[in-house]
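Subject: Sanity check before I submit

Could someone independently write out the C-alpha cells for this chain? I want to compare against mine line by line before I put it in a report. The sequence has 120 residues.
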Amino acid sequence: MRMGYEEFWVYMLLCSDRSYYIGHTEDLEARLAAHQRGTLAGYTLSRRPVELIWAEPFTDRENAIARERQVKQWSRAKKAALAAQAWPRLVELSRARGSTGSPRTDREGGPPYDEYGDAS
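---
Independent answer below. Compare away.
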C-alpha cells in the first residue's frame, strides 16, 4: 500500500522444499502472485507453492537492498527466528555468531534491530 511515498519491501518466502527465498520488491502483492504463478525464472520456479512468512517495509530501495543482502547471509536458524518474530532467539543467534549486525533489544514493541538491521 502506498501512502504518498514509494514503498519497498524485503520479504522471505518458505518454498515447498522448506527452503527460504529472500527478495525485495516495490510491489509485494504483485511479486508474490508472480512467484506463485511461476512467471519469475529463478529459484522459486521449481519450488512452488511458496508462502510469505516475513516482510519488512522500507521507504527507499537502497536500504531495502542492504537489508536483503544482510538477511541472505544469515543462518537458517536466524532466518527462522526472524520469520517467527522470536526476538530473544534472534538476539541469541546474533551473539553466538559474533555478528556485527546484532539485533537491538531496547525497542519496545518492535523488531530488535534498527532500520538497517544493525545494532547502534
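---
OP: Matches mine. For the report I'm noting this point. Residues 1-73 form a domain with the GIY-YIG endonuclease fold (CATH 3.40.1440.10).
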